[in-house]
Design goal:
- The chain is an alpha+beta fold and about 230 residues long.
- The protein folds into 2 domains: about 5-65, no CATH class; about 85-230, Alpha-Beta Complex (tt1808, chain A).
- Helix content is about 40%, strand content about 25%.
- It has a 6-stranded mixed beta sheet. It has a 3-stranded mixed beta sheet with strand order 5-4-7, with no helix packed on it. A two-stranded antiparallel sheet has the order 1-2.
- A hairpin with a 4-residue loop joins strand 4 (about 120) and strand 5.
- Helix 1 (about 5-20) packs across helix 3 (about 40-65).
- The protein is globular.
């Protein structure tokens, strides 16, 4: 693929990022309208198609590489490896998972997934720290299933290496694929942000620090005490 074509795609990305940084996020229709009006539209589309075809091949290779002791994600054509988590991350993950799993099982609400559950979206593959599927969806899964659709609820626990991804591409991707509720937990600052999906985008419903009680919207009746979550 010619560098000129790739350069054109990067121009579009830079333009869209600039608009977003100016709090003027472009809609899909606005991006398409601008692209269609460009004399280089066909070349840009062909270049993008070439990139996506290569991604398909690389994605299949990624599936062959992954195994139970290998924590990695496939994001925009690249394999992203994750380093071992810090203790504060593990404490939050264990405490929240235990509480959520116990509650969901008692109420027979669905399925809770932890870390190694591979979520396959249109372009990317993620392993969320914690996720939840409602019963009617979870009942369709098979015992040997390895790839799963977008969950109903996702929790990501921040680290220095993942914060940009959790607040960036995952934030956009989860919303685009209908994940109704998204929690972002910062174990260092002891905060939880709860986002809910509205018209295809997330809005921040609440942000709590250190103390307080947070209730899930998707997991009916589930409450978490922040004081019992952090170390």
């Amino acid at each position: 693929m010619g560098g000129k074509h790739l350069g054109k795609i990067r121009e579009w990305i830079c333009f869209c990022n600039f608009k977003a940084n100016m709090n003027e996020a472009m809609s899909t229709s606005e991006i398409l309208e601008k692209l269609i009006k460009s004399p280089n539209a066909i070349k840009i589309i062909e270049a993008a198609q070439s990139i996506f075809e290569k991604e398909k091949i690389d994605r299949l290779k990624f599936y062959d590489l992954t195994h139970e002791n290998f924590k990695a994600e496939f994001i925009n054509g690249e394999i992203v490896l994750h380093s071992p988590a810090r203790l504060r991350h593990l404490v939050v993950s264990t405490n929240l998972t235990t509480s959520l799993h116990t509650y969901v099982n008692e109420k027979e609400l669905g399925l809770v997934g932890v870390e190694k559950m591979m979520i396959r979206l249109t372009r990317n593959d993620y392993e969320p720290d914690i996720c939840f599927f409602k019963k009617e969806r979870a009942n369709k899964f098979t015992s040997d299933q390895a790839l799963f659709p977008a969950p109903d609820f996702v929790v990501e626990i921040l680290s220095d290496s993942t914060e940009k991804i959790d607040r960036g591409i995952k934030f956009i991707d989860y919303a685009a694929h209908g994940v109704s509720e998204y929690w972002i937990i910062d174990p260092a600052k002891k905060t939880i942000e709860k986002y809910l999906l509205q018209q295809g985008e997330y809005y921040l419903e609440v942000k709590l620090s250190a103390e307080g009680r947070l209730q899930s919207t998707v997991v009916d009746g589930f409450l978490v005490e922040l004081g019992e979550l952090f170390m």
